[in-house]
Amino acid sequence: MSTTAIPAGTKWWNGGRSPFNASYGKVMMWYFLMSDAFTFGAFLISYGTIRFSVNDWADPNKVFNSFPFAGHANLPLAFVSLMTFILIFSSVTMVLAVHEGHNMNRKGVEKYMILTIIGGAAFVSCQAWEWSHLLTGEHITLLNDGTLSVLPTTASSNPWGLPLEHSAMLAALQKTPHDQLANIASTIHHTGAEAVHNTYAMSDPELLNMISTSEIHANHLGRPAFGSYFFGITGFHGFHVLSGVVINIVMYTKTKLGHFDQRGHYEMIEKAGLYWHFVDLVWVFVFLCFYLV
Amino acid sequence: MSQHTISPEITHQSDHSEGTGRIWKIFWVLSLLTVIELALGYFLYFKGADMAHFAILGTKMVIGALTLLKAYYIVSVFMHLGDEVRNMIMTITVPLVLFIWFIIAFLFDGNSWKNLRNTNAGSKPNIEKIQTAPIKEGSRK
What we know:
The structure holds two protein chains of two kinds. By secondary structure, chain A is mainly alpha-helical. Chain A has eleven helices and three strands, in the order ααααββααααβααα. The two termini of chain A are 32 Å apart. Chain B has one domain (21-126). The radius of gyration of chain B is 24 Å and the shape is flat. The interface between A and B is large, with 83 and 75 residues.
């Protein structure tokens, strides 16, 4: 693996040289990333433990099945694949920037840093869309009091329990109060804010008639931990991506100002690159734990 | 090779004149592994309902193994850890061995909780508490 030709019998610990053949900053960046790996690892293992401990964890293929501008089409894994490829590609442009830095090619570093920043910004934008889609979603759910309601996916509300039987749904509809019925009616007819006002003015029998019970899908209430873990872990990862983009912008600016040419080496690009690749590395596991399995 | 010195204490410079061929090769390897993972994910999505429990678990473990392979390529090639001296590689990777215990112990614990929940000795399954009408036996699988 190693491309460095090191003479046999080199005395690493005799002083005057770095025993790890690396600068203090680079070694410490590695140790920071190792500790960060334990933080993310602990989060993901905690998520796995809770998920393993229940019978009715949410099915990711049902929760994450939408794509921007695709309406209500059922497209599981599609959007998250796009996000994964964006991040892999931005990792490649980062390692190319590091490579240009080794060759002291300032123009090359600038070009690949710009591409990496664009990739990072694209990823964060995708995540913003995904979050807002989940947080503003409308799903008909059986509440613990036996009534039906319309719920989004948030850190504390999870409409992704087990599917509700048809007979149970009919029974629950009879108990559901007027304004919840109005919300359900406007949700299933995909009407805007003005129409919600209209359904509020309708009577209960009219609303029940409007809610064609054979075509609506309702679930039991799911585990609140699902949203807490999803938003907590993808949020912590997204914050890493965001700070990585900021670090890369700083590195791009310093490259542009010629700081690294004056210094005689582009090691800062290498260290920023380590952080950026780590963000990609964590995503590989988030992708596995939340979407694939 | 260009002349650049980070510090006089770094006595061996890696040879960076090799070009970008290896980087692009790893890009295609990572993309291919991701495509295989997605294919297995879709396989579970379409066929999972008819599959035995151990077959689903086996497929998920294959996906997990492919993820570890991706992680190896990212760390070894993109982060250049494979090009560092052996002592440095060991101080980074040996502590990560803790994860083997960490994952096995905690997932086993979670699974044990589920088994307890589903017996009368533990608390009843949540589904029985919130159910307002009878549910078909076996429809939960």
